[in-house]
Recover the amino acids of this structure.
């Protein structure tokens, strides 16, 4: 029961966090000296009659005082109305529902790869400290952290698409393929749901390069964190006790060391999601991946206030929910943590 | 244990040494072998198989259409798409921007005073819905353009056209009345640019409640996801800003009536690819047939390889300098002249070779009224003399603002300016920054990269020079960005611009523009550097690819030659 109370409390606390984030974003976006109508209409704005420009500004609520714009926006959110994008002329919610699944798909696959490769590599490095595998892991991690992800993505494309012809360059499916009927917006899932196996495998192939590009720096960080926390845990008294009881090393690592060593890794992983959402902007650009990062980039360039606020809301909401899940995972890993 | 470790290390070193010696020795041995006899083994053709029915275009689609409503579409790619979904009264072909050709209008007359345009319409055209095309559709489309104002509106509003300016004189005759006399060339160009004809009955049927009385929302919501015209190609899949797939519509009235034969190209796929490197790789692999707006350095590299060609976009682009004449030091024409005389124009042309052309007049090559005058060259002595005359014997400091992508040009200019004593710091700005910077007159020199809205000298001047009318800070939005920002008020030039745009015939306008150009060349607020149109790089298996000035290219003429290519 206490756990449910804790979850409800945390969900309620998300509200002031979101309000704070949106307020700050609103203030910043209105403070910067930018002209969204000018950015939208380009040079043509100079030629339009003044009343026409004023009418367009009225359509997007930009002619109202700032505090009115703010209150209207916040009350509209409660009704699920994120406003209309100046650039796309569509409801921002429609745009987000169009683009967000692609980002989710990319981020989920990247998280799986980061954790699936990073944690075992970190464990192996810790267990084989100062051996060739540890040295390789260090090299791997240093390169991952130091290398710009978009450059890495281009290099992967150069090798695997251009030179070897093994993998496709851009998009979620082949150029000539029509996407499967939309159920969730995640092509891999939708193709499974609709039983379209060719598109399922095709979309997996298309996911490989962007996933590796986005996952690599995070894999490196996770590997290093896991290694250092494993080394710390492996030096504790209870691990020495477990070994002295005659337990096999594999049992010592898996049943005794790993759970406690993973607590800092879980923390890093949740922070990693925020970084991935931000990093996806560059990767989506390189691979023409139709995700929210791509949408957010255009929103910022065109000073599309509503779209900027909408994407900020989505990212903030995602981040806070993942933080909550992370905290719940702590409780599972460490029985000392009570809610 | 220690001994074992030491022995292991020693063993490792020894093995490594042996491997090194062995590899060197083996390589030496290889060089001593006699050259083998080369046998010609016929290769099975491999490489790119050309899909002759589909054209794939790659470009940065940032400026692409957001919906199927032609009101929102004025950029090149927008007009291309809208040109496939809608027909117009008149069109233009190839590079000729002076001669309108009939499409939905069979013929027309222009009154002697240049205010009234009467169009006689085709009686056999019809929409995709099956609805017949009549004068009512033209009236509706033009009234919509003026009543439901968006980006495209200004191109007709500047003629004083309003709702009610277009009237049906009969079922197949429509008359458009302007508020004033205008040059015919400007009027036809803009009708050709934004005068897309919508299916009135279809759109009224799908309109929802809105602020336009009986017309509701004017079909705005419907046109988010549907076309409503005469489509030579239908959209079949669209991911906004990412991908558009279009399929040939064999029921298009021009194909059905045999006015145009069915194009060989059955599908057009348009892809958003913002990175030049990705575009380049996909071009080489044959996944893309045409790359639009690829950067010149990348195009240059591709042109070195077999199977690539390049064509200029119809719409010219430029690089020019805009100087802030509102504040010192650029309020003094001697300082502006010093800038003009300090630039190495040939070096700039060489840098952009083979794409750019030297240009020092405001009207560029390809637009009527161009004068081949290039009086300036790098003359630092003269530049310094002019600065000294203006009181800047020791030079001065200023800021050179640029958009990203112009860093190399900025560096060249900075070097030239430094020699003359004009010390620049380079600042990279965004489009939004530029508007604010120009509005507030807060800049020194800016490298402008403008295109024009229509291919007439008037468009160039309105954008860059014209400060006539009530030129005050309250009206800044009514002026071209550079015109306002530079703040150069020359009543003679303003009056000449006003006179030229109202002169119906070109033969009477040409001398006026010649006079304006000569004033601008020696007294103007800026300096043209180079004509630099956008580039289409394409695979040479695409035949009859001819970019034009209005709708990118005529897809009806294009085809792909079936062949097999060896991968290099």
């Amino acid at each position: 029961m206490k756990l449910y109370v804790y979850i409800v409390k945390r969900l309620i606390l998300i509200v002031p966090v979101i309000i704070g984030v949106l307020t700050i974003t609103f203030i910043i976006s209105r403070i910067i000296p930018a002209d969204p109508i000018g950015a939208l209409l380009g040079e043509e704005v100079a030629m339009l009659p003044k009343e026409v420009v004023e009418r367009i500004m009225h359509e997007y609520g930009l002619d109202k005082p700032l505090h009115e714009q703010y209150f209207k926006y916040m009350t509209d959110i409660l009704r699920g109305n994120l406003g209309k994008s100046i650039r796309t002329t569509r409801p921002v919610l429609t745009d987000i529902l169009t683009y967000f699944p692609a980002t989710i798909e990319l981020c989920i696959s990247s998280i799986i790869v980061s954790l699936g490769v990073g944690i075992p590599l970190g464990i192996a490095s810790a267990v084989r400290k100062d051996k060739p595998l540890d040295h390789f892991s260090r090299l791997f991690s240093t390169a991952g952290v130091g290398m710009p992800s978009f450059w890495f993505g281009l290099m992967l494309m150069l090798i695997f698409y251009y030179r070897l012809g093994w993998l496709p360059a851009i998009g979620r499916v082949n150029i000539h393929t029509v996407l499967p009927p939309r159920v969730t917006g995640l092509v891999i899932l939708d193709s499974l749901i609709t039983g379209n196996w060719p598109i399922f495998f095709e979309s997996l192939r298309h996911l490989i390069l962007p996933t590796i590009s986005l996952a690599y720096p995070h894999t490196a960080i996770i590997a290093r964190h896991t290694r250092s926390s494993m080394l710390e845990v492996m030096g504790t008294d209870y691990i020495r006790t477990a070994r002295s009881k005659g337990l096999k090393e594999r049992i010592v690592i898996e049943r005794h060391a790993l759970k406690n060593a993973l607590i800092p890794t879980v923390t890093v992983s949740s922070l990693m999601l925020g970084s991935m959402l931000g990093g996806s902007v560059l990767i989506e650009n390189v691979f023409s991946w139709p995700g929210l990062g791509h949408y957010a980039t255009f929103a910022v360039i065109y000073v599309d206030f509503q779209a900027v606020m909408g994407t900020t809301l989505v990212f903030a909401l995602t981040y806070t929910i993942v933080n909550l899940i992370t905290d719940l995972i702590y409780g599972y890993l460490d029985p000392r943590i009570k809610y | 244990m220690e001994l074992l470790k030491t022995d292991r290390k020693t063993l490792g070193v020894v093995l490594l040494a042996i491997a090194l010696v062995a590899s060197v020795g083996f390589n030496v041995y290889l060089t001593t072998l006699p050259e083998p006899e080369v046998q010609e083994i016929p290769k099975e053709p491999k490489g790119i198989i050309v899909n002759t029915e589909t054209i794939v275009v790659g470009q940065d689609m940032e400026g692409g259409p957001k919906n199927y409503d032609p009101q929102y579409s004025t950029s090149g790619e927008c007009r291309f798409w809208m040109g496939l979904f809608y027909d117009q009264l008149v069109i233009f072909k190839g590079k000729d921007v002076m001669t309108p050709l009939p499409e939905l209008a069979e013929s027309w007359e222009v009154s002697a005073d240049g205010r009234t345009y009467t169009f006689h319409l085709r009686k056999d055209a019809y929409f995709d819905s099956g609805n017949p095309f009549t004068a009512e559709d033209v009236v509706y489309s033009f009234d919509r353009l003026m009543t439901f104002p968006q980006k495209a509106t200004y191109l007709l509003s500047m003629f004083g056209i309003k709702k009610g300016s277009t009237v049906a004189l009969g079922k197949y005759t429509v008359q458009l009345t302007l508020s004033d006399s205008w040059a015919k060339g400007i009027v036809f160009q803009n009708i050709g640019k934004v005068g897309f004809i919508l299916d009135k009955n279809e759109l009224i049927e799908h309109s929802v409640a809105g602020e336009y009385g009986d017309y509701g929302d004017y079909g705005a919501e419907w046109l988010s996801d549907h076309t409503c015209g005469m489509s030579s190609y239908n959209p079949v899949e669209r991911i906004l800003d990412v991908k558009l797939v279009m399929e040939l519509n064999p029921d298009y009235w021009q194909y059905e009536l045999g006015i145009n034969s069915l194009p060989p190209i059955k599908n057009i796929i348009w892809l958003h690819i913002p990175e030049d490197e990705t575009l380049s790789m996909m071009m080489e692999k044959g996944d893309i047939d045409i790359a639009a707006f690829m950067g010149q350095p990348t195009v240059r590299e591709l042109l070195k390889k077999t199977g690539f060609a390049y064509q200029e976009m119809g719409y010219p682009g430029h690089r020019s300098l805009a100087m802030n004449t509102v504040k010192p030091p650029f309020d003094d024409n001697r300082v502006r002249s010093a800038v003009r005389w300090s630039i190495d124009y040939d070096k700039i042309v060489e840098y952009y070779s083979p794409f750019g052309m030297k240009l020092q007049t405001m009207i560029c090559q390809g637009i009527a009224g161009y004068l081949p005058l290039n009086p300036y060259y790098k003359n630092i002595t003269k530049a310094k003399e002019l600065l000294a005359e203006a009181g800047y014997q020791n030079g001065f400091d200023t800021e050179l603002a640029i958009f990203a992508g112009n860093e190399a040009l900025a560096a060249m200019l900075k070097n030239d300016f430094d020699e003359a004593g004009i010390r620049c710091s380079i600042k990279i700005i965004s489009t939004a920054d530029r508007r604010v910077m120009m509005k507030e007159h807060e800049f020194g020199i800016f490298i402008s990269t403008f295109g024009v809205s229509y291919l007439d000298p008037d468009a160039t001047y309105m954008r860059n020079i014209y400060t006539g009318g009530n030129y005050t800070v309250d009206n800044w939005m009514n002026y071209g960005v550079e015109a306002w920002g530079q703040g150069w008020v020359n009543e003679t030039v303003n009056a000449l611009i006003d006179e030229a745009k109202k002169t119906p015939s070109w033969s009477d306008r040409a001398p006026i523009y010649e006079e304006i150009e000569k004033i601008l060349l020696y007294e103007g607020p800026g300096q043209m550097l180079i004509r630099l149109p956008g580039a289409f790089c394409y695979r040479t298996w695409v035949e009859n690819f001819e970019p034009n000035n209005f709708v990118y290219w005529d897809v009806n003429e294009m085809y792909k030659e079936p062949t097999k290519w060896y991968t290099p």
